[in-house]
Amino acid sequence: MCGFFGAVTSNRAVCQEIYDSLVSLQHRGQDSAGIVTFEKRFHLKKGNGLVRDIFSAKNMSRLAGPMGIGHVRYPTFGGDTSEDAQPFTVHYPYGIAMAHNGNVTNTDELSNYLCREKKAHLNSSCDVELILNMMAIEFAKRGVPDLEPEILFDAVEGIFARIKGAYSVVTLIANYGLLAFRDTHGIRPMLIGRRDDGNGKFSHATASENIALDLLGYTDIENVRPGEAVLFRPGEEPIRKQVTAGIHHPCIFEHVYFARPDSVLDGLSVYKARRRFGEKLAEKWKKTGLHADVVIPVPDSSCTAAGTMARALGLEYREGLVKNRYIGRTFIMAGQQARNSSIRKKLNAIPTEFEGKDVLLVDDSIVRGNTSRQIVELARQAGARKVYFASCSPPVAYPCIYGIDMSTRGELIAADRTVEEIRQWLGADFLIYQDTGDLLEAAKVEGINNDQFCSACFDGNYPTPDVTPEMFARISESRSRHHQQRHEGSI
Questions:
Q1: Binning pLDDT at 50, 70 and 90, where does residue 466 land?
Q2: For the segment 288-299, what is each residue's pLDDT rounded down to a tens digit?
Q3: CB atoms within 10 A of CB 101
Q4: pLDDT tens string 376-389
């Protein structure tokens, strides 16, 4: 899961607004970041770390030009990302820079095609390098003529035919403009907007979440449709084309965890969805007959649902866990060791909110279980009499192959355990999960039926047709090999 922003402005430097957009999208990736702009040539700066740590005043002044793209990265496999930071560039044909959010599922097939048949050399393990090289090949197939919109859209159609998985892509083409497109299932979010700069001039932009557009004054914000491409050129209105038919399957986990609560994705307010998650979970809690004195959220993604749940139950809502906001989101940290070492540094309990009380802890999800287990221990150390645990989402029992770092079943606590076994492992006095049906019903919005959401990590129903046991075996082998290489490199 990553975040991107791309803009074509009305003849003013774009680098500062790309920087500001990446700060607003930092929650989507904390491992690396990059910006590329164009003025006569590509100007690129990227590196490991947070946005604020990568870009200095000196290199910001070097990022010249009125159009560009930026990216924050969360690695699916973790580890060193010095070679995987986006955007990526190729200089033939035309000159193309690219960033994306998502995950390509037929990477082995594409890598073999590029390396063996096209004699390409790949420098990273990043999916966007595959998409970028395939885009260059699609352009070259057409004899490298002067660019016309239909040539670009034909190239995107070729991409859709060859590349499988979930991906939203923004492409910067030298001396030309931006090309944005979203895969035919629309699993990963993508939005566009326009800004009136006065004197009849307009800027246009695309982003992973609408908040990046809102904060920079963009209006008329719309979702890019599945299988659609949008072309932005300086001084012109965008050209939109439905390149191929799409069946919309937006990711439900965006609303559970990843997106900011002030975002609206595919017409669904993340904040309102999380409120309804809390309402549904409260209904289920009432059936248990258990008593709790206080509801305490695990900050931050669960706060909205926990507050709604507390009101529905007539219980006190207390922020008994204090978050150190200078520690990154533990779920998206690279590697389990990094996650474990950061959980205790990230959260601290206020003892007066726990002492002698039956506490109902509410979190957005339980994926690997390590964070939840340590939080239960923290609550007990703070003096809680009983520790109940509620998850706003169902058990995460299946791997995500679309860009979330839960790629193998062996990492998921719910893959081979019952709810009671998970409760015992967490050390909680009671454990309750949201039902899948309730989650999807809570997320229902006009234009999207609740059976259209991608909820594969909960129910195993993958929307793309290429999912096979052999694919999971390859992913598991690749992940094990990656961890072994990291271990050997650290000795």
A1: confident
A2: 999 999 999 999
A3: 31
A4: 999 999 999 999 99
3-state secondary structure at position 209? coil
Strand order in the sheet with 165-173: 88-90, 96-104, 165-173, 177-182, 228-232, 239-242
Among 79-93, 190-204, 206-220, 358-372, name the one with the lowest average pLDDT. Answer: 79-93
Instruction: Annotate 391-419 with b (16+ C-beta within 10 A) or e (fewer).
Output: bbbbbbbbbbbbbbbbbbeebbbbeebee
> Over the stretch 226-252, which tens digit does the pLDDT of each residue have?
999 999 999 999 999 999 999 999 999
CB 11, CB 194: distance < 8 Å: no
| Range picked from 114-123, 213-222, 475-484 for highest mean pLDDT | 213-222
d(CA 82, CA 46): 9
Name the burial class of residue 89, with classes exposed (0-12), middle (13-18) and buried (19+) by CB atoms within 10 angstroms of its CB. middle
Cα angle vertex 26, ends 21, 31, to 5°? 130
178 close to 172: Cβ distance less than 8 angstroms = yes
**What are 13's two structure tokens?**
């430097």
- Angstrom distance (rounded) from CA 237 to CA 231: 9
CB 132 within 8 A of CB 88: yes
- As a whole-number percent, the residues of the chain with pLDDT over 90 amount to 80
User: Is the backbone of residue 266 left (phi > 0), alpha (psi -120 to 50) or beta?
Assistant: left
Residue 314 neighbours by CB under 8 Å, 6+ apart:
none
Phi/psi at 151 (5° precision): -65, -45
pLDDT of residue 78: 47
Domain 3-248 has CATH 3.60.20.10: yes
List where CATH 3.40.50.2020 sits in the chain.
Answer: 275-456
H helices of 354-468, where?
Answer: 370-381, 419-426, 436-442, 456-459
Q: Tell me the C-alpha distance between 208 and 166, whole Å.
A: 13
The predicted structure's pLDDT at residue 81: 56
Nearest-angstrom CA–CA distance, 55 and 71: 13
CATH 3.60.20.10 in the chain is located at 3-248
Query: Would you state the CATH architecture of domain 275-456?
Result: 3-Layer(aba) Sandwich (3.40)
Give the residue from 165, 104, 125 showing the smallest Cα distance to 334: 125
Rounded to the nearest 10 degrees, what angle do helices 336-346 and 370-381 cross at? 30
Among all residues, which ones are annotated catalytic?
2
